[in-house]
Amino acid sequence: MSTKQLEKTLRVVNSLGIHARPAAMIVRAMQKYDGHIYLIYNGNSRNAKSILQILSLGAPKDAEIVAIADGKDAQAALEDLEEIFESGFGEE
Amino acid sequence: MEKVFHGIPVSPGIVWGEALVYDTEVINIPRFKIKNPKEELKRVQSAIDSTKEELLLLHKNTLENFGKKQADIFDVHLMVLEDETLLSELKRRIYEELMNAESILYDITQKYIKDLKTTENSIIEERKADVIDVIDRIIRNLLKQKRPDIENIKKPCILLSKDLPPSETARLNPDKVRAIVLERGSTTSHVAILARSLKIPTIVGVNNMFESYTEPIKGAAVDAVEGTLYINPASATIKKLRLKKRQLSRKILQYEKTIISHPSQTKDGRDISVMVNIEFPGEVDDNVKYLSAGIGLYRTEYLFLNKTEPPTEEEQYNEYSYVAKAMAPLPVVLRTIDIGGDKLASYASFFKEQNPQLGCRAVRFCLVHKEFFKTQLRAMLRSTTPGNIKIMFPMISSVEELRDVKKIFHEVMDELTQKKVPFKKDLEIGIMIEIPSAVLIADELGKECNFFSIGTNDLIQYSLAVDRNNETIAHLYEPAHPAILRMIEMTIASAMKLKIPCSICGEMASDPLFTELLIGLGLDTFSMSSVSIPQIRALIPSIDYEEAKVFAEKILQYPTAKEIRSALKERIRSKYKNIVSIV
What percent of chain B has pLDDT above 90? Predict the structure, then answer.
């Protein structure tokens, strides 16, 4: 891969963790970007454009997740992701 | 050929007609080698396209009928359907393994389900049901099998299924589903409660009905008075049932005549109130208004099921105040949410409990989730004017717990007063007596509330340590157990001493076997599902309170449930044969 890889640490703040609705939110947002985007939690790395893979992370409240992105719009993807995580997926 | 099965009748009625086998999962997935992977991928694409159409339609209908929150779940389903890793794995493996798409899809799903299971996060784990659901749709489309959709059943039918979770039951259309027969379930399971309130004849606990019947199931006849299911019934069976059905409706006419000509009191003039238990506002009809003395138990849980988020204060207020106004001036007892245990809504619990029945349910859940509780209390309090509302708290086990609940209740009252929101300031609050500890300290609890209602379903389960849904021990669930009768006696005695009203709202209230006994123990208020009211109400005028007291005293002397049951049956045979024909 010629483009450089970027990294960002994110925290799950909503009380229910990444359940179906947040996972769908992440996928919907990430599908807009060209590069590969992965979420790493608990030693597992999962494709952020796949709802099945995100759900199988099983990330609860306060989980720390490392997001990795590459491609031209990697920076934008990670910033977008950060905003989504910080908003608690629009939940409490 | 006709085949007969037996189960437990939980909602009475006699019905026959077309059968619909409702199963949410294809059980036998075919496995075979393929020659042309390109053709196989075409088949996959067309199955995915059809599934997408189905889901878009479901999304649209749900949005129109239930709103955005409920429709959201189909967005998730659509996303699973178009999941890029799922599709690329499927394609790759079809080329590598040269096996049919159904079998590979099934294997891939199993892997994801296993992953979801290991997350130890129950709300995420529950989502595996959604994954299974979507994959099942694709597999069915590959197999060109139609899945029955519980909400969109077009033709009247008799629904046969292994089990129905409460969320599915709440979605079924009572105009089309004429009867329900399940392999699992018990008298007090939520399907049973729901079926009674929707007046759908229902039999549960019909063991192995699918395994032991291998011919195609076309028709069924259901005798949910006795608990008999006839699969592909013979014409002689239908004839027999038609006759029985006619006799049954004659019986109901006879009940109605008695009810019109006799007030709701014993032969010697003691007033007995027969009230109704409801689940939905829609159940309040003319029958409920004219046959009952009010709503003795409005279970509010169903408002909270089938949703990704709890209902708002406004949504709750609309439902409660509708019932209050429709029933006025008759009383309506609103019970605060009894969620937890076996009727969890997906947002309600984050951690899986080892033992939910003994866990964080009902007021315990509410004391942990205070804002959630306060929202419900605000909605309930606002609905107290106009109307005759009372509020009841379930699962109280100690005086401290009652005080904690009341503290929050008073906080909400103060907040409403400050905001000048009108509500009835002197409304009565009561508690469910359904935990043995509450029975033993009823004399103390009664000093701090205005009424009791005995919830026999849970009281029996907790006293006898029997999980009512566990089929292997379900026979130990015994309302006629002398310990249960003594507990009911104790509770009523405490209430009488404190001069507060005491009612009974569990299934025992609707069983005519116990009516005279309960009246003899001093009970004057019964609350039950509306289908049971005519019989009990017709029975009351032929009971003599003084005689009932003597009879109750005698019954309490017996050491075993068996002796008690046979004495109760004998009593019905000798005194109430004309009214009660169950024995």
Answer: 53
Which residue in B79, B111, B118 has the most chain A C-beta atoms within 10 A of its own C-beta, making it the best mutation to test that interface? Answer: B79
Among all residues of chain B, which has the CA nearest to that of A21? B76
What residue ranges do the domains of chain B occupy? 3-22+149-241, 37-143, 262-575
Nearest CA in chain A to B123: A19
Architecture of the CATH domain B262-575: Alpha-Beta Barrel (3.20)
Does residue B34 contact residue B40 with C-beta atoms inside 8 Å?
A: yes
* Residues contacting B94, CB < 8 A, separation 6+: B34, B37, B40, B41, B44, B101, B104
Domain membership flag for residue A92: no
Cβ–Cβ below 8 Å for A58 and B118: yes
- Same fold yes or no, B3-22+149-241 and B37-143: no
- Residue B446 or B2, more confident: B446
Whether the CB of B127 is below 8 Å from some CB of chain A: the reply is yes
The CATH code for residues B37-143 is 1.10.274.10
Average pLDDT, chain A: 88
Structural domain boundaries, residue A58: 6-87
Domain B3-22+149-241 fold is Glucose Oxidase; domain 1 (3.50.30)
| CA atoms of B113 and A42, how far apart (whole Å) | 18
pLDDT-based confidence at B143, cuts 50/70/90? confident
Mean pLDDT across B320-341: 89
Domain-located, residue A51: yes
A38 domain residue, yes or no? yes
Residue B371 near chain A (CB below 8 Å): no
Cβ contact B83–A23 (<8 Å) = no
Give the Å distances, CA to CA, from B524 to A60, B501, B531.
Answer: 50, 8, 20
**Structural domain count of chain A:** 1
Residue B20 and residue B173 in contact, taking contact as beta carbons nearer than 8 Å: no
CB contact B177 to A (< 8 Å): no
Least confident of B55-64, B265-274, B456-465: B55-64
CA-based torsion, B471, B512, B259, B528: positive or negative: negative
Output the six-digit token pair for B59.
């999304």
